[in-house]
Design a protein that fits this description.
mainly alpha, 2 domains, 5 helices
Length: 100
């Protein structure tokens, strides 16, 4: 596949996503899942910049990002808690091993 073909495919994907964003938040389940999956796994920084700069869907893009992508999930909170617990365990171990 040539570079030009890849660029055309990316442009077609972006056009589909822009079409879905234009109808956000009134999307049926499968289309909403497609939109979320694309943003989480398929979008490149260039794609995000081009979509964010598109005035036709700027409001929907911001609303979608705010409600679906840029928020903390339970998994994020668990990861942060596990990280804090690991740091606390390391410092506690160092404190307990220090000569008094």
């Amino acid at each position: 596949m040539s570079f030009e073909d890849t660029g055309a495919i990316r442009a077609d994907e972006r056009a589909r996503i822009v079409g879905l964003l234009a109808r956000y938040p009134d999307l049926p389940g499968p289309e909403f899942d497609e939109l979320r999956t694309w943003f989480e796994r398929g979008a490149t920084p260039l794609d995000l910049g081009l979509i964010a700069g598109n005035p036709d869907v700027a409001e929907q893009y911001r609303a979608f990002r705010e409600s679906q992508i840029d928020r903390f999930t339970r998994r994020d909170i668990w990861k942060a808690g596990a990280f804090a617990a690991a740091i606390l365990a390391v410092f506690s171990g160092i404190f307990l091993l220090m000569p008094h």
